[in-house]
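Go through this chain.

——
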Amino acid sequence: MLEVKNLTFKVNENGIERSIVKDISFQVGEGEMLVITGPNGGGKSSLAKVLMGIEEADDGQILLDGEDITSYDINHRANAGIGFAFQQPPRFKGMTVDRLLSLAAGRELSEPECCKMLSGVGLCAKEYIKREVDATLSGGEMKRLEIATVLAKPHKLCIFDEPEAGIDLWSFTMLIQQFEKIHNKKEQSLILISHQERIIQMADRIMLIEDGKIGAIGPKDEILPTLLDKGDSFACMELE
């Protein structure tokens, strides 16, 4: 499915080059859920952006179903079958929610279809379907809406960057149910970046990233006890 080989990503800060992702290699199998966790600032979101093509790798290789997508931009990677949910979703003034969902699905969606997608992520569909995707929506509403756009059509691989951030407990439960449905079908692979123990508990495998490197990777039952032993360094995020 996804194979990452010796991936490196650097930034230039005030004339000084710094490695954010350092020679990372891993795989995600078909239908597998990999949860990536670790300290803030360790490189998790940067890795996700490189995988999606938002940032360009300085070295290494990315393969999807054996196809080398390293040189693909974000549009080509989306067409190849990768979906992505940002940690801070973008807003689109003038675009309505139902239009955004139709664009994400690649076809014109009916009102019942849009309502079903919105309800699935904990939004009261009738109140949102004609709203604009602008500053009138809260951060939590935007987060849920963006996750709905990712779920609007099937992908080979879906990447979610801290899907729990900024949402209430009830909506979080709805999202967990959505992830469980996707995972149980084994039709799409999932990469979830999270500090939330309930999400980590869903993983087939866990990858710990510290200082841009893989600190540990393996089956949940092997890695999770190590994370819990670390205590406050990996405290779960609080939900609203």
